[in-house]
Amino acid sequence: MSQCVMVQPDQSLKITTTDAQSCAGYLLLTPQEVSALQSPFVPLSATDGAAISGAIFLVWGAAWLWGEIGSFLKSGSGDST
């Protein structure tokens, strides 16, 4: 169970009876509570991160190219203004 603690002027900690929702100090957690707070997402490897970044870059590049082609086709002479 988590405990609310307040830092005293001498830098010591004093446990209070305040509940977690209204704790104005620090909240001390058990290891089980900390593990329950961990992100549900699996950490990415460098290879996975690079693949996702590359895919985002390719989608961005395709959108930019699509816009350029649309601009070229709109201007009758092919000049971009």
From TrEMBL:
Keyword Transmembrane helix recorded: yes
Keywords: Membrane, Transmembrane, Transmembrane helix
TM regions (residue ranges): 49-67
Name the UniProt record assigns to this protein: Phage coat protein
